[in-house]
Amino acid sequence: xxxxxxxxxxxxxxxxxxxxxxxxxxxxxxxxxxxxxxxxxxxxxxxxxxxxxxxxxxxxxxxxxxxxxxxxxxxxxxxxxxxxxxxxxxxxxxxxxxxxxxxxxxxxxxxxxxxxxxxxxxxxxxxxxxxxxxxxxxxxxxxxxxxxxxxxxxxxxxxxxxxxxxxxxxxxxxxxxxxxxxxxxxxxxxxxxxxxxxxxxxxxxxxxxxxxxxxxxxxxxxxxxxxxxxxxxxxxxxxxxxxxxxxxxxxxxxxxxxxxxxxxxxxxxxxxxxxxxxxxxxxxxxxxxxxxxxxxxxxxxxxxxxxxxxxxxxxxxxxxxxxxxxxxxxxxxxxxxxxxxxxxxxxxxxxxxx
Length: 354
Prior knowledge:
The protein has helices spanning about 15-30, 35-50, 60-70, 85-95, 115-120, 140-145, 195-205, 225-235, 235-255, 285-295, 305-310, 315-325, 335-350, and strands at about 50-55, 75-80, 100, 125-130, 150, 160, 165, 170-175, 190-195, 270, 275-280, 325-330. It has about 350 residues and is of the alpha/beta class. The protein folds into two domains: about 15-235, Type I PLP-dependent aspartate aminotransferase-like (Major domain) (Aspartate Aminotransferase, domain 2, 3-Layer(aba) Sandwich), CATH 3.40.640.10; about 235-350, Aspartate Aminotransferase, domain 1 (Alpha-Beta Complex), CATH 3.90.1150.10. The longest helix is centred in the C-terminal third of the chain and has 19 residues, at about 235-255. About 45% of the residues are buried. It comes from Candidatus Scalindua rubra. Keywords: Aminotransferase, Pyridoxal phosphate, Transferase. One of its GO terms (molecular function) is transaminase activity.
């Protein structure tokens, strides 16, 4: 009996280059934060077009340090999108701040600028703006509000907005290198900025040992093992992004007429397709079950919108997206055979009468 093929929703794009890079670090005997981390920081800053960068243990720790660096304290209000993973809510809570949730845009899934404008107030001290699923948000419109902006580029490294890479707009920008992300180092993150003062604060807060004074500091360091993987991933990032876009084009071509699809091209921004989202009729849970039974692992774009955790209402766009949208596998290591299976199984489901 042949073994059933199971296509995962996400998979890192690793090869012998990562094996060699990590092996070299292990052989060196220096596996903690060191010169390899510093090299990755310089390369990331150069890639984004920023003055400097600080590597961290995770994308969440990067966001946490970013909020601390700009002086967010207990009782401050921080605006964040509602249709995101809970990491953003967590970092707001870490610093004792209060979240202002803004609804999602139904077409782009990014923060709805009109809803954001209605919800912010004079006490809003910062706005965290993710570029959801690889599509740049309307970052210039958010920045025009005059409130400090932290870009969350966890899902969008390499995406371009009006000729500039995302991560080059906000006072600080944060990246994630978790195993499912575009660049994968297992765990890991990065803060990028043009402000040497803010980067200095983040470096100070990132580690706690051998200090003349006492402050609450953290153990948020990246290891040279992770950084070696990161350098290898960054070298091939452009080719990885091209593969994602080509798969997205194929999905778009073959699924037209079967379901609502995202736009492939935009006038003023470049989507990198960290995720490929489609809208389905009927129950999302039943759709996910149908696809899983046939070997195609799909997921909800976010496990739950934040308002569902907080048991509050008033986010109709987030509810509509969550009740209709699934994320299908899209990553550079997908084979042609796997893509054909994904498309065939999806068409089987989408042809059904609900």
